[in-house]
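Continuing from the previous page of notes. For each protein in this section, the sequence appears first, followed by its structure tokens. Read the first protein now.
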Amino acid sequence: MARYLSAVHGADIPADAVIVDEATWLASQEMDAPRFNADGSLSEIVAPINLEVARDTALAAIDQAAGAVRARYITVAPGQDLTYQRKSAEVAAWLAAADPAPADYPILHAEASACAMPMADVVADALAAEEAWTLVGAAIEGRRMAGKRAVRAATDLPAITAARDAAIDAINTL
């Protein structure tokens, strides 16, 4: 019977799996052949919890939380980040140009055409969205990095867990 930790495995847990707590799961990762009770608890712990495994798991959880919050504000799809980057570059070039020609800005021009909007309005909307995202993105990144620093500084499992939880809570407030 497989043991799963929801913080690590997320929604990819089979219906017949035994859900275990973080300490049990981490301890079992260090064992050659862990023995479990029917309820999923370890029947014996033959190795100490590996703090590096705990730390890596906590760091990944912080990154996952940051990604989930980012997804509330921006489109998360393959290639979308490249479109955003290109659009940002086109906005900057449009604003710097003395007499911009719409055809020189394919991403902006395509949006203006599809939405029946003047290029200047598309540029203004894109600039406003970029500025708003910069503020949110900076807040997410600051909290993500502070949390990761706290996890790396933690010296035992309770401190790692507390640092992870505090970081995720801070990120989730955005």
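Done with the first. The second protein uses the same format. Note its length before scrolling.
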Amino acid sequence: MRIYLAGPDVFLPDPGAAAAAKKALCVAYGAEGIFPTDPWPPSDLDAAEGAQSRAMSIYARNEAHLRDCDALIANLTPFRGPSADAGTVYELGFFRALSRPVAGYSNVTQRFTSRTLAMLGGHARRRADGVWEDQDGMSLEDFDLHDNLMIDGGIALGGGVMVVRDVPPAARFTDLVGFEACLAHLMRKG
């Protein structure tokens, strides 16, 4: 089984070490881990210059990897805000649209609404009907889920697993216990 390893791990100071650790766990379970930065056969986009052209080349490579994998594990630990990394969420949705198995993990247990309220500081209020709203009068999701309902729902309705646990802040993006639980789940499902 080829498993796409989605997550903000590509932004770590040493993404290669993160990739190696996840790939080693995949091998131990009889799978092959595919990290977003893994090479892909060159395309016309690879020769392009400039930031936007490089971005399109990265996108094309990642989409090719997604299409070539059998399953996906997403690191959904909140990243630069109250929700998961936007690119990871896109990849998760893309993979669900392919009707392939997905699993997700987060190393933060605080629920989405609580994280959003904390991010907003004192700029949120509860309306008379009990619904939270932000400073622009827009309602907040309040479903007692780990993240946006489309993320949790996509994993749950796709037969996946969402592993949520707290780890020390310094290990938030490197602890792999949740990742390994997702890997074990996918391998059991075959």
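What the second structure shows: The chain has six helices and seven strands. The CA atoms of residues 71 and 106 lie 18 Å apart. We return to this in next week's lecture.
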